[in-house]
């Protein structure tokens, strides 16, 4: 069977075999509902409690601060919509580079009287300090700035931003989905600086799809998105997805345990990749800022990104033209446009996001295939011009 090289780990990661092994009993013999009073139910409840402890430990939080959800999208919506529902309509501020699952619920608040302000970023994808301080002076009620961008990999100084926002007394949230398992997360440190909630997801670090969490300061009042039997401290009703939650806990524990080794591995691979890309005349986006060690976002002038991704896929390399959740949108990346990248170049964007199983040999093969593919596409362009 043909198996392409997988370079799209920011979209999702392969399920770790150790995580699958831990999940299997809860997909077969341990099938109880965690709300049931008999031993099957009690076993499911214990499994959820243990997973919550693992996730909390991995992000430096208390287990009672972890609210399990179906993923990052639900967790982001729970914070933005849930917090807004408990406040008088005011100003909500989100960065211009947020994932759609933050931008869209923030936009939706305008229908119930809220004002929306998108925070500008600089050419390297960092929130612009002057614009941020201007917004803080307008005293927003809610602020959301992602910890690491899913396209460029650029890391924001969330601690400094939260400290700067403190005088406004806003609830401050950060989408840490891409950062989890690639950077050290410490909710105690973030919370002390003024971050009140963060979002994480299992499938970005070797866990299953369908499990995420909002880690939230218990002082934040939230109206649940899903009402029912009062699960998850009344913040997320519904029968718990026990196998996925168990897998989330194991993936979180494993992800923290070998973070340093993975970081060094990613850095070596990306160094090799980006040196080769620069030799081929590529533009690297966000290269002047701190980035996730596994992420490289680039474009080659005159080459369409979607076309290049399709050619590379047929040659055996799975990469992305941007965020997986925005793949149906033919428009240039809103992240790159916010950075001031011309739309003609933004349309050429390709993201390579590396994983623990990728090798230097795979990177070198990719560069060789990419060079040949670019020459072919430029030749076709010359023939039709």
Specify the helix fraction band. 40-55%
Number of strands: 12
Instruction: Give the N-terminus to C-terminus distance in angstroms.
Output: 39 Å
- The CATH architecture category of the largest domain equals 3-Layer(aba) Sandwich
Strands side by side in the biggest sheet: 2-8-7-6-5-3-4
Estimated radius of gyration: 21 Å
Please count the helical segments: 13
Task: Provide an overview of this structure.
- The chain has two domains: 5-13 and 258-384, Alpha-Beta Complex (Aspartate Aminotransferase, domain 1); 17-257, 3-Layer(aba) Sandwich (Aspartate Aminotransferase, domain 2).
- The protein is 41% helix and 12% strand.
- It contains 13 helices and twelve strands.
- A seven-stranded mixed β-sheet has the order 2-8-7-6-5-3-4, with helices on both faces.
- Helix 6 (158-165) links the parallel strand 5 (142-144) and strand 6.
- Helix 1 packs antiparallel against helix 8 (242-257), helix 2 (39-59) runs parallel beside helix 8 and helix 3 (72-84) packs parallel to helix 4 (100-108).
- The radius of gyration is 21 Å and the shape is globular.
- The mean pLDDT is 95.
């Amino acid at each position: 069977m043909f198996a392409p090289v997988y370079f799209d780990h920011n979209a999702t990661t392969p399920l770790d075999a150790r995580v699958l092994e831990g999940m299997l009993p809860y997909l077969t013999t341990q099938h109880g509902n965690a709300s049931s009073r008999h031993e099957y139910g009690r076993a499911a409840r214990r499994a959820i409690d243990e997973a919550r402890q693992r996730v909390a430990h991995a992000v430096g939080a208390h287990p009672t601060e972890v609210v399990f959800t179906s993923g990052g999208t639900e967790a982001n919506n729970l914070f933005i919509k849930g917090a807004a529902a408990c406040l008088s309509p005011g100003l909500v501020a989100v960065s211009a580079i947020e994932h759609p699952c933050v931008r869209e619920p923030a936009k939706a608040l305008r229908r119930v009287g809220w004002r929306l302000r998108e925070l500008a970023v600089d050419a390297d994808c960092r929130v612009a300090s002057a614009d941020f301080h201007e917004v803080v002076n307008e005293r927003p009620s809610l602020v959301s700035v992602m910890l690491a961008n899913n396209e460029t990999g650029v890391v924001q100084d969330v601690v400094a931003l939260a400290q700067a926002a403190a005088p406004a007394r806003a609830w401050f949230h950060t989408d840490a989905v891409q950062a989890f398992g690639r950077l050290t997360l410490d909710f105690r440190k973030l919370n002390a600086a003024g971050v009140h909630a963060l979002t994480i997801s299992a499938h970005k670090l070797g866990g299953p799809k369908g499990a995420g969490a909002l880690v939230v300061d218990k002082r934040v009042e939230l109206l649940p998105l899903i009402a029912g039997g009062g699960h998850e401290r009344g913040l997320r009703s519904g029968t718990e997805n026990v196998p996925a939650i168990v897998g989330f806990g194991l993936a979180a524990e494993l992800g923290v345990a070998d973070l340093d080794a993975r970081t060094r591995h990613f850095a070596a691979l990306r160094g090799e990749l980006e040196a080769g890309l620069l030799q081929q005349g590529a533009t690297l986006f966000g290269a002047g800022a701190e980035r996730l060690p596994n992420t490289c976002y680039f474009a080659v002038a005159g080459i369409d990104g979607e076309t290049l991704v399709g050619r590379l896929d047929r040659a055996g390399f799975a990469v992305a033209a941007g965020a997986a959740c925005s793949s149906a949108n033919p428009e240039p990346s809103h992240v790159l446009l916010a950075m001031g990248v011309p739309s003609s170049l933004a349309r050429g964007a390709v993201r390579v996001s590396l994983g623990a199983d990728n090798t230097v040999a795979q990177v070198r093969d990719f560069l060789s295939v990419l060079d040949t593919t670019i020459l072919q596409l430029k030749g076709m362009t010359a023939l039709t011009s």
